[in-house]
Design a protein that fits this description.
The complex is a heterodimer of chains A (302) and B (331). Chain A is mainly α and 302 residues long. Chain A has ten helices and no strands. Chain B is α/β, with parallel strands linked by helices and 331 residues long. The chains are: A mainly alpha (302), B alpha/beta (331). At the A-B interface, α1, α3, α4 and α10 of A face α1, α2 and α3 of B.
Chain lengths: 302, 331
């Protein structure tokens, strides 16, 4: 996620330079031919172009809204994950009848919370298509991590394991059916959050929404110098390039945020959020590990 | 000194400047750490007066590695290239990871690649990727393919040793790639000062000589293509479906006046790149003379055929024979 107030133009340049350079070359050619070659038939009436520009703006706004909607939903889901993780841990730490002199019961209770920490890390890696096992080995231990290696969907395996641990607690008499049902509802919420994140990850914005505005922007940018050249003459490339850059930048910016789990600067800051969740849950367990908070680097937080 | 991937605890040194490219490389590094069960060191070299900010940034970069069983963070000050090279020299059994710089697509007439500058000074292999390599192939948990580019000009086999070691470690196939030049009058001049094979039989012979030294516990394929180096190498790599390409450092780096960069021959490579500098000082690591002959009982390798794999019950050892004598007795 970008936290800095201003975005340097050089961040947009790599995504836009090819289109812009071609258009500027075309603008210069049109201006030169019109002014020096007397090709006045190149000139177009500017009025229809204004109408076309309005229609195009609606298209671009629609696409930008759809992209932002996906980005914001992803952030909301991770906010919900923060809340659910805290709530589930609180329920586990307070609703289970644990005999503090019985290490098996204490370990089982704490292990459920540690698995919740592991779930958050595993979900982040799952969405970013990153190998979670070295990290999980540090959270769960080598043996428990190796047992997860056969699973394609590691976060889902972790929720299953948490459910099994709750069942074990129930068999040990630490939990009655009513409280078990309540805790299982929290696990279902986790599964829903995971499913929603996977839906965003696996379902791209409909291609019509993303490709049609791009084609229309390109077409419009080719027509702009023809509409401006009669009024601006040799200065046509300046105004035309500015208009083109504005439209291309909007198109590019909305394209950058439409996939919020792609391991880029426009991502939901899952690394920072999962570290925050871990710090909170370890505090609840009275395990204050010396882990620093994840801060923004050069205005970007991941 | 043994190949990095063959040591008991391989060590990856991830040199970072906290750029987007470094962040984008994190999944790749995590995959390598897991597949090699490697120790990970995050290394940052900062300028004077920037220690506090650099320390905060280093703590936040690749935060998940704080949980890795063997990981640490190192902060150094001073010249970037010299600092990285110095740190690597203290860890000779390691592999340096350096992602490419973020491309600005603006003209940089006097730009010199930091990676090649580091590569000229380090004595450890460097794992990197080229800026145009957008879709880095995912490293399979086991198996896969490791490619090694033989130019014919090299006099040492450090890169083959590293490639074979990596293939052995990952239970992968080793593909030895060779690009024959197009036949032209210029080749007649080249033949005067180069021992590079200029015809397919000589190239096959050279690759057989090298493959014979790899050891029986690694499956080897020989692939030869003819044509312009950049396109042909890319084609061979696509055909081999290799995830990793291992090259000799002097092959990878192109030296120009005051500047250096990666050779254009690697530009279309779809693989991760491991550049191997000369690491071994012993004379016994030299290639045999190009006209060396295999012993009669050694069955030559046909291009494109997998060498039959022989399971060995003895514990793994260096793929390199203890004595690389010039009379060329296979291991």
């Amino acid at each position: 996620m970008i936290l800095r107030d201003s975005i340097p133009l050089q961040r947009l340049w790599p995504r836009t330079y090819k289109r812009l350079l071609v258009l500027v070359a075309f603008d210069c050619a049109v201006a030169a031919l019109y002014v020096f070659g007397d090709w006045h038939w190149l000139s177009l009436d500017a009025l229809p172009l204004g109408t076309l520009g309005s229609a195009l703006t609606i298209f671009l706004a629609f696409r930008a809204n759809a992209a932002y909607g996906r980005w914001w939903e992803a952030r909301q889901l991770w906010g919900q994950l923060v809340n659910t993780s805290r709530a589930l841990s609180r329920q586990v730490l307070t609703a289970l009848d644990v005999d503090d002199s019985n290490p098996q019961q204490v370990d089982l209770r704490n292990d459920i919370v540690v698995h919740q920490i592991a779930f958050v890390h595993a979900l982040r890696c799952h969405l970013r298509k990153q190998n979670p096992f070295p990290e999980l080995a540090g959270v769960l231990g080598r043996a428990q991590t190796d047992a997860l290696r056969g699973y394609g969907n590691v976060p889902n395996a972790l929720t299953l394991r948490m459910a099994e641990q709750l069942q074990q607690a129930r068999e040990l008499g630490m939990l009655d059916s009513l409280r078990w049902s309540s805790l299982d509802t929290s696990l279902t919420t986790l599964a829903n959050i995971q499913g929603s994140c996977e839906r965003i990850k696996n379902t791209p914005l409909p291609r019509q929404f993303s490709s049609l505005p791009r084609v229309l922007v390109d077409a419009y940018c080719w027509l702009v110098p023809l509409a401006l050249v009669s009024g601006l003459g040799i200065f046509t490339p300046v105004a035309s390039a500015l208009i083109s850059f504005t439209l291309i930048a909007i198109d590019t910016a909305s394209g950058a945020i439409e996939d919020p789990f792609e391991n880029t600067v426009n991502d939901t800051p899952m690394t920072a959020l999962s570290r925050g969740i871990e710090l909170t849950l370890r505090e609840m367990l009275d395990q204050r590990k010396a882990l620093p908070e994840v801060r923004a680097i050069d205005g970007f937080v991941y | 000194m043994s190949p990095m991937s063959q040591t008991a605890n391989p060590h990856l040194i991830f040199a970072t400047n906290f750029s987007e490219a470094c962040h984008a490389a994190i999944p790749m590094v995590a995959q390598w750490v897991d597949s090699l069960q490697a120790k990970l060191t995050l290394l940052h070299v900062h300028g004077r007066g920037a220690q506090a900010q650099a320390s905060r940034s280093l703590d936040s970069f690749f935060a998940e590695s704080a949980h890795y069983p063997h990981s640490d963070r190192q902060l150094l000050s001073g010249s970037t290239a010299a600092g990285i090279a110095e740190f690597c020299s203290q860890h000779p059994e390691s592999m340096l990871v350096m992602p490419p710089s973020v491309r600005t697509y603006l003209p940089r007439p006097f730009h010199s690649s930091l990676r090649t500058e580091v590569l000229r000074h380090v004595t450890t292999p460097m794992l990197t990727m080229l800026p145009d390599t957008y879709a880095v192939p995912e490293l399979p948990k086991t198996g896969g393919r490791v490619a090694c580019w033989i130019t014919g000009d090299e006099t040492r086999l450090d890169h083959v040793r590293e490639a074979a070691s990596l293939a052995r470690q990952r239970d992968a196939e080793l593909h030895l790639l060779f690009v024959l030049p197009e036949v032209s009058e210029g080749l007649m001049l080249e033949a005067l000062y180069s021992e590079r094979p200029l015809a397919e039989p000589a190239a096959i012979q050279r690759l057989e000589d090298i493959a014979a030294r790899v050891g029986d516990d690694v499956r080897v394929r020989v692939q030869i293509g003819t044509g312009q180096t950049q396109r042909t190498l890319a084609k061979l790599l696509r055909q081999s479906r290799a995830q990793t390409l291992v090259v000799d450092r002097d092959t990878a780096v192109r030296k120009r006046l005051l500047l250096s960069s990666f050779t254009s021959a690697l530009r279309e490579s779809p693989c991760l790149l491991i550049c191997v500098p000369p690491r071994f000082k012993q004379e016994n690591d030299l290639l045999p003379p190009p006209n060396a002959r295999l012993p009669l009982e050694k069955k030559p390798i046909q291009p494109g055929l997998i060498v039959a794999r022989r399971e060995i019950a003895q514990p793994r050892r260096s793929w390199l024979a203890a004595d690389w004598s010039s009379d060329f007795v296979p291991a």
